[in-house]
Amino acid sequence: MNEVKEEIFKGLPASKGIAIGNPFVYRAELPSYNVDIPFSGEVSAEKEISDYEIAVSQSLKELNKIFNLAKEKLDEKNLQIFDAQLSFLYDDYLHTKIKNKIKLERKPAFQVFKDEIKVLENSILSSNDEYIRERVNDIEDIKNRVLRNLLKGRLVSKITENSIVIARNLTPADTILFSNRNMLGIAIDFGGINSHVAIIARALKIPAVVAMHNISVSVTASDFIIIDGYKGLVVKNPSEETIQRYMQQIEHNIEFEKQLETLEKLPAETKDGKPVLLSTNLEFNNEVDYIVTHFGCDVGLYRTEHLFLEIGDFPDEESQYKQYKMLADHIYPKKVTIRTFDIGGDKLLPDSQKELNPFLGWRGIRICLDKSDVFLAQLRAILRASAMGNVKIMFPMIASLDEVQQAKKFLETAKEQLREKNIKFDEKIQLGIMIEIPSSILIADALAKEVDYFSIGTNDLIQYTLAVDRDSNLVSNLYQKFHPGVVRFISLAVEAAVRNSIPISVCGQLASDQYASLLLIGLGVNELSVETASFLIIKRLIRLINYSEAKKIAEKVLIMNTECEIREYIVDCFNKNIGERLISQ
Amino acid sequence: MIEKTVTIVNKAGMHTRPASILVKIASKYKSDFYIIKNGFQINGKSIIGVMSLAAEQGSEVTLKFEGPDESKACAEIVKFFEEGFGEI
Questions:
Q1: Which residues of chain A have pLDDT under 70?
Q2: Do the Cβ atoms of A311 and B24 come within 8 Å?
Q3: Cβ distance of A93 and B49 shorter than 8 Å
Q4: A145 and A162 share one domain
Q5: Which long-range contacts (CB under 8 A, 24 or more apart) does B16-19 make?
Q6: CATH number of A51's domain
Q7: Which CATH number goes with the domain that contains A183?
Q8: B54-88 pLDDT, tens digit each
């Protein structure tokens, strides 16, 4: 075999894991769909109409099958997309129009249907509203499905088993179907981390990378590839060495995960007997059952933003209540901390009013305090779900004392409104705030008197402390989690919490990082709320360290003055205490 | 015949999910149902028609009902619009 050069393509990691294998380059749109199929001689309207009817009923059959498959794998919210797609095929007005056109113009059904959909696509694309324009993707699946059936095409949605699927984009239907053909991984040109494909891939635990730009034309069936769902990479024609490295990583991960599972039932306690409250962060419902059956822990941070992002607007009280209640019921007797909407103004404002600095703008509690109806509706929904006593409330983005006091007034109003209607809720519901803006740490003593607990949001704390935009590539090297300023801020926050006898947790990314957690525990943080994927890794860490040693490490770190010094020291201590790093992060 | 002008209030506009629910509601009634936007009229019982309006947040549309149960149909559909398709 000829020597081929290894190539690496970078995108976004959408679903973790590693896949090694042959690609199946999937093209949803057959090239012939773009050209007009020449036809000669007489078109038999009768035959075309009957072909059309058969194609539609065949498409219905296919989509119903996918719908039923999806029902087993996805929750209700994710199912609606399939239901809406089906309704296109039930559109009798469309069918009548197509049939009339076939009779009138004596054109093949294929041509007439394609033209009709094109008209629809053009009107959708003519909108000024980006969200509406994106809806053109929703008809893509239906269009291609009917056209393919009209051409009596083979079902292209069949992939070679055990392959990695490469595509421009994947519809939810394809993703579900392919998972039944033992798809190893996914790499697509388009999509974001929260696109339908990404969400479904995570739910199905299939490694996936998205936003790969031109991957669908850069890879062919004769290549051999690796998908790195941790780093968002595709390695094309990897060298023997790279393959070996990834194989080892997979083996390691399997072995390590097996070991980790044995920790599920063991307490999160240091070697010298100090318990650490270990909980998880939660965003999507599909993780709830897993958390309950495998971890049996609290939810230390439930983010409510996705409820907003899914519909592009604030959800009403009733639908929020249903969601929060479902969560509280499932997790009971464990507790769930619900954080009120932490949305940026960039999601709400029209383009013309967009802020130059959305992270320093209208976001989090600032929006809630300005939009009292929205805030009160959310607070009532949370309170109503708290009746069993296992719900806590948390406010994000607190910078000053009067913000907390104002927010508390809203909470009192919401409680009063419920009392008037004799609706039950937890009268003693615990209230906490996120510590993520430097100013809040410097006035932490005052804030502590207003609330029952603190929770440090490290991503924003780092960003605001160092004045580094965490999403900017240009300064990403300056986004330093072990910057002495960050470490000292965390230490100050912990001290304030201790002085005022309230608990303090960390719910940001830092808690999911083994090295950082070693330091956090040493600094005296008593609760870590971590990503579900890191839960057992952090539990392992806790069980391998002595609290007394962690404390000494933290004391030393607090007198260091550079990030580099701190990082190297922590890694060194980690390696001595914990042994070799076992899992890729 | 009843005619009623309404505004699309939800943030995401008339996207696929509300369009499919709207068509389902309209199809329960015997009355004909049309939506007019910028002088362009479509059949409100056809999802392809509704989607082709590309009606974003803030756009005004006129709803037209004609048939034996037109007032009932009008009431339910106007409510659906006013409630922002259940997305507010």
A1: 1-3, 28-42, 77-78, 152-158, 193-195, 310, 345-347, 349-352, 471-473, 579-585
A2: no
A3: yes
A4: no
A5: B16/A81, B16/A84, B16/A85, B16/A135, B16/A138, B16/B51, B17/A80, B17/A81, B17/A84, B17/B85, B18/B80, B18/B85, B18/B86, B18/B87, B19/A84, B19/B47, B19/B50, B19/B51
A6: 1.10.274.10
A7: 3.50.30.10
A8: 898 899 999 999 999 999 999 999 999 999 998 77
Look at residue A518 in the predicted model and tell me its pLDDT.
94
The C-alpha atoms of residue A244 and residue A233 are separated, in whole angstroms, by: 16
**Does residue B59 carry a catalytic annotation?**
no
Containing structural domain, residue B6: 2-86
Domain boundary (A150, A173, A208) is at A150
CATH number of the domain encompassing residue A439: 3.20.20.60
Do A119 and A41 share a structural domain? yes
Q: What's the CA gap between A568 and A7, in Å, rounded?
A: 32
- Please check whether residues A218 and A289 belong to one and the same domain: no
Q: What is the rounded average pLDDT for all residues in chain B?
A: 92
In a domain, A255, yes or no: no
pLDDT at A81: 74
B49 touches chain A (CB under 8 A): yes
Q: Is there a contact between B43 and A93 if contact means CB atoms under 8 Å apart?
A: yes
Number of domains within chain A:
3
Same domain, A445 and A348: yes
pLDDT at position A31, please?
Answer: 40
Q: Percent of chain B scored above 70 by pLDDT?
A: 100
Is A256 contained in some domain? no
Q: ω into residue A333 within 30 of 0, thus cis?
A: yes
Do A172 and A217 lie in one domain? The reply is: yes
Q: Give the whole-angstrom CA distance, residue A373 versus residue A385.
A: 18
Residues A16 and A46 grouped into a single domain = no
What residues make up the domain containing A478? 269-578
Q: Nearest CB to B51: which of A81, A124, A311?
A: A124
**CB neighbours of A420 closer than 8 A, spacing ≥ 6?**
none
The shortest C-alpha distance from A426 to chain B (Å) reads: 26
Quick one: pLDDT at residue A260? 82
Q: What share of chain A is helix, strand, coil (3-state, %, to 5)?
A: 55, 15, 35
- Residue A328, domain member (yes or no): yes
pLDDT at A142: 86
Residue A368 appears among annotated catalytic residues: no
Option in B48, B55, B88 nearest A88 (CB): B48
Q: Coil, strand, or helix at residue A367?
A: helix
| Domains of chain B: total | 1
Provide the 3-class DSSP secondary structure of residue A235.
Answer: strand
- Rounded Cα distance between A451 and A505, Å, is 14
Q: A568 and A488 in one domain?
A: yes
Predicted local confidence at residue A433, as pLDDT: 98
Between chains, do B13 and A314 touch, taking CB under 8 Å as contact?
no
Q: Is B67 on the interface with A (CB under 8 A)?
A: no
Nearest CA in chain A to B50: A120
Best mutation target, A67, A87, A373, to test chain B (most B CBs within 10 A):
A87
**Residue A1 resides in a domain:** no
Catalytic one of A368, A507, A564, A573: A507
Question: Counting one residue from A and one from B, how many pairs have CB atoms under 8 Å apart?
Answer: 89
Binding-site residues on chain A for chain B (CB distance < 8 A): 80-81, 83-85, 87-88, 90-94, 116, 119-120, 123-124, 126-129, 131-133, 135, 138-139, 311-316, 319
CA distance A111 to A51: 12
Q: Do residue A124 and residue B49 have CB atoms under 8 angstroms apart?
A: no
Nearest residue of B to residue A142, measured between CA atoms = B48
Are A355 and A454 members of one domain? yes
What's the CATH code of the domain at B47?
3.30.1340.10
Of A221, A241, A261, the residue that ends a domain is A241
